[in-house]
Design brief:
This protein is α+β, with helices and mostly antiparallel strands. The protein is about 30% helix and about 25% strand. A seven-stranded mixed β-sheet has the order 8-10-7-11-9-12-13. The protein has a four-stranded mixed β-sheet with strand order 3-6-4-5. Strand 1 and strand 2 form a beta hairpin. Helix 4 packs across helix 5 and helix 6 packs across helix 10. The structure holds adenosine-5'-diphosphate and magnesium ion. The site of adenosine-5'-diphosphate (ADP) has 13 residues, from helix 1, strand 4 and strand 5.
């Protein structure tokens, strides 16, 4: 996750009065649209703990993300978009494990009780909660500098979890969607990027469609749950791209003890990325940017045709960008298949590049 370069406000935390905490929970969190019951949820918000039932043949997959104002998002961010993003990035982790969303908990730290903000926040959570049948079942509310911690719980059949460690020599490397949009969005949203001062838009004012596209890419990332649940049985390994392809693919390679080669020309970009930044900056955004929340996964050669037909049926774009090989590390290849030097060092003129 990209970090907004501002110092956090440090305050002594105290609890809101129990009355206002209770009111916040009742009016904005324990609502029928957010805290609904579903199969397996015996008891949600309202007791000392939620009670959930995990089917015996499944694992409970759990993942958590903490978003702190002034660090991970600007203080004045739209609460509804923020809520959407906070839940979406968690759901993306479930997708990467091949897990079906089940429920989530929320740790909410608020500087004060702002009804309008809370109504927007609650609304923003409802949309994805309903879409993925993933209700809010509990949490904690406290006073302090604004921060949002979400923990999602998912269910995955025991032999279906798509771990980082399963890639095999000869497998193909795929990504879903397009890469680099999350990093480019920081530029269009006027937020700091760790990619340095030369990472900039080529057009001073991208058109309105482009601007909307990038705002959506940042605040409404689409967790690739459907793809993971339908085609995940064909993935030998999987990770979601939250820190940039280079770093995230490297996790698969390390855990699987293999090497990877990537054809630079095969990396998929959005139309908006193509018309907003230079080819060098597109590559920089895709490899080192982050915040894309697409999946990078490996598939045995024999399964590639089936994978591509499932993805086509779902209307989800998947692109084969390379191969898993013997050895370690990532080789980048140009259009002729010759190796190209693409390391963080090769981008040294971009200060602060990972
Ligand atoms: P306790 O004092 O037993 O921890 P709380 O008074 O903090 O309980 O919370 C009361 C109920 O409201 C609990 O069921 C808790 O899970 C739920 N709750 C509190 N804060 C949140 C939140 N931010 N989101 C969802 N549920 C919450
Ligand atoms: Mg509590």
């Amino acid at each position: 996750m990209v970090v907004v370069d501002q110092a956090p406000v440090r305050e002594v935390m105290d609890k809101p009065s129990s009355q206002s905490e209770f009111e916040i929970i009742r009016r904005f969190l324990a609502t029928p649209n957010l805290s609904f019951l579903r199969d397996g949820i015996e008891l949600g918000i309202g007791d000392d703990a939620a009670l959930i039932e995990v089917p015996p043949n499944k694992y409970l997959a759990m993942s958590m993300d903490v978003l702190i104002s002034g660090i991970h998002f600007p203080l004045d961010a739209d609460p509804s978009l923020l809520a959407n993003r906070a839940l979406a990035v968690n759901l993306s982790d479930l997708a990467a494990m091949g897990a079906e969303p089940f429920c989530f908990t929320l740790g909410l730290v608020l500087p004060h009780s702002d009804e309008k903000w809370l109504a927007g926040f609650s609304n923003g959570l409802e949309y994805l909660a309903r879409q993925y049948n993933c209700p809010l079942v509990g949490g904690d509310t406290s006073r302090g500098p604004l921060s949002i911690s979400i923990q999602v719980q998912g269910l995955v059949e025991k032999n279906r979890a798509t771990r980082r460690s399963g890639a095999n020599v000869g497998d193909k490397i795929y990504v879903s969607g397009t890469l680099g949009d999350g990093a480019i969005a920081l530029l269009t949203l006027g937020l700091d990027s760790h990619l340095g001062s030369e990472f900039a838009l080529t057009v001073s004012e991208p058109n309105a469609t482009c601007l909307q596209f990038f705002e959506d890419a940042y605040f409404k990332p689409h967790p690739q749950i459907e793809l993971a649940l339908t085609a995940g049985k064909l993935f030998s390994s999987c990770i979601d791209i939250s820190d940039g392809l280079q770093g995230d693919l490297q996790h698969i390679l390390d855990e699987s003890e293999v090497a990877g080669s990537i054809r630079l020309g095969a990396i998929p970009y959005s139309k908006s990325a193509l018309c907003s930044v230079s080819p060098e900056n597109r590559l920089l955004a895709a490899l080192f940017g982050g915040d894309d929340y697409e999946l990078c996964f490996t598939v045995a050669k024999k399964d590639c045709e089936e994978l591509e037909s499932i993805a086509k049926e779902l209307g989800v774009s998947v692109t084969c960008i390379g191969d898993i090989n013997l050895g370690e590390g990532i080789d980048y290849l140009d259009a002729d298949g010759s190796p190209v030097e693409v390391t963080a060092q090769a981008f040294q003129h971009f200060s602060g590049c990972r």
